[in-house]
């Protein structure tokens, strides 16, 4: 076996064209780590932010992009007892997924759900870790509550709609076209609002307000989200496609006892991510194996076409997840 692997590096901060094929040494797993031979890597918004120089990886992480992958265990480091060579896994990664091999803490791996291929499994970790930790842990969504997710046709959105619906919430979504709204309805949303044609604030107010909103848009959505919340509603912020700064009337937060919170996944501790993995295995993997929920696939690109995959994602026409075949 060669000591080198194919990978995609960020040659300099910039647009999709700064993603370049390269060769790098195959890493060696340390204590508590596994080396995964990657079959497919997921493509996510944070990858594009990292590529643009706006989302620096932790000092201990690979500088290569890629936060999720599926494949087989190629080697295990000291103190790893849960996995062995040849096991099929999908994993949340600290970075480095756009490569033939990648390291990750063993506790951040999950078995490929029974009956699912590696291509689909590569789409699970980043979105399912994010949705579970923000919608259910941080947001506290309960059965029967009204839940609004923005960007309903995105990887995060399609996951959030399905999980919230499967666990008994009333789901509302926003999307930017009739086709995308139709997908949201098929996945379990009871209403899908085309934000180019209607105001989600009015739709939610007519239903009594949202108990929980998951938002990655930011900008002028922040004050509108506050208006769309029910008394004692919660807003969870996970991104800022329209920017993080806005003028907001906090009197409404006080008067209606609202909660505004948010998180980002990558900087959290290894232990925090391991706990999310445990919850997913217990609560969500049975739903995947029963076919009650499934990743929504948009498209597949070869590893060397990572730049094209990023351009496609940033074009905004995709529905669901984009993967790289390694």
Which features would summarize this protein structure in a list?
alpha/beta; Quinone Oxidoreductase, Chain A, domain 1; Rossmann fold; 6-stranded parallel beta sheet; 15 strands
Helix and strand arrangement:
Blueprint: E1 4-10, E2 19-25, E3 33-43, H1 45-51, E4 68-76, E5 88-92, E6 101-105, E7 109-111, H2 118-121, H3 125-138, E8 146-149, H4 155-166, E9 170-175, H5 178-187, E10 191-194, H6 200-206, E11 210-215, H7 221-228, E12 229-237, H8 251-255, E13 259-262, H9 270-283, H10 285-289, E14 297-302, H11 306-315, E15 321-325
Parallel strand pairs: 8-9, 8-11, 9-10, 11-12, 12-13, 14-15
Antiparallel strand pairs: 1-2, 3-4, 3-6, 3-15, 4-5, 5-7
Helix pairs in contact: 3-4, 3-9, 6-7
Domain Enoyl reductase (ER): 14-324
Keywords: NADP, Oxidoreductase
GO molecular function, one term: oxidoreductase activity, acting on NAD(P)H
Kindly describe this structure.
- Residues 14-324 form the Enoyl reductase (ER) domain.
- With 326 residues, the protein is an alpha/beta fold.
- The chain folds into two domains: 4-124 and 267-325, Medium-chain alcohol dehydrogenases, catalytic domain (Quinone Oxidoreductase, Chain A, domain 1), CATH 3.90.180; 128-262, 3-Layer(aba) Sandwich (Rossmann fold), CATH 3.40.50.
- The chain is 29% helix and 28% strand.
- The chain has helices at residues 45-51, 118-121, 125-138, 155-166, 178-187, 200-206, 221-228, 251-255, 270-283, 285-289, 306-315, and strands at residues 4-10, 19-25, 33-43, 68-76, 88-92, 101-105, 109-111, 146-149, 170-175, 191-194, 210-215, 229-237, 259-262, 297-302, 321-325.
- Strand 9, helix 5 (178-187) and strand 10 (191-194) form a beta-alpha-beta unit.
- Helix 3 crosses helix 4, helix 3 crosses helix 9 and helix 6 (200-206) runs parallel beside helix 7 (221-228).
- It is globular and about 65 Å long.
């Amino acid at each position: 076996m060669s000591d080198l692997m194919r990978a995609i590096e960020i040659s300099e901060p910039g647009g999709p064209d700064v993603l370049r094929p390269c060769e790098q040494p195959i890493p060696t797993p340390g204590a508590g780590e596994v080396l995964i031979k990657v079959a497919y890597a997921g493509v996510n918004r944070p990858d594009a932010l990292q590529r643009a120089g706006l989302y620096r990886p932790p000092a201990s992480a690979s500088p290569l992009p890629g936060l999720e992958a599926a494949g087989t265990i190629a080697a295990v480091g000291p103190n790893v007892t849960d996995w062995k060579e040849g096991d099929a896994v999908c994993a949340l990664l600290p970075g480095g997924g756009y490569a033939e091999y990648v390291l990750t803490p063993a506790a951040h791996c999950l078995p490929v759900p029974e009956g699912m291929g590696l291509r689909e499994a590569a789409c699970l970790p980043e979105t399912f870790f994010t949705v579970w930790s923000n919608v259910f842990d941080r947001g506290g969504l309960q059965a029967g509550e009204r839940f609004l997710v923005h960007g309903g046709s995105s990887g995060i959105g399609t996951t959030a709609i399905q999980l919230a619906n499967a666990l008994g919430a009333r789901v509302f979504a926003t999307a930017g076209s009739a086709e995308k709204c139709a997908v949201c309805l098929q996945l379990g949303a009871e209403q899908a609002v085309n934000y180019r044609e209607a105001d989600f604030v009015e739709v939610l107010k007519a239903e009594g307000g949202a108990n929980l909103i998951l938002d990655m848009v930011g900008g002028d959505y922040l004050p509108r989200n506050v208006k769309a919340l029910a008394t004692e509603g919660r807003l969870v912020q996970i991104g800022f496609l329209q920017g993080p700064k806005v003028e907001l009337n906090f009197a409404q937060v006080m008067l209606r006892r609202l909660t505004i919170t948010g998180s980002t996944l990558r900087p959290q501790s290894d232990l925090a991510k391991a706990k999310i993995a445990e919850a997913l295995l217990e609560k969500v993997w049975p739903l995947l194996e029963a076919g009650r929920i499934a990743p929504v696939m948009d498209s597949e690109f070869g590893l060397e076409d990572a730049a094209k995959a990023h351009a496609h994602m940033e074009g905004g026409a995709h529905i669901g997840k984009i993967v790289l075949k390694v």
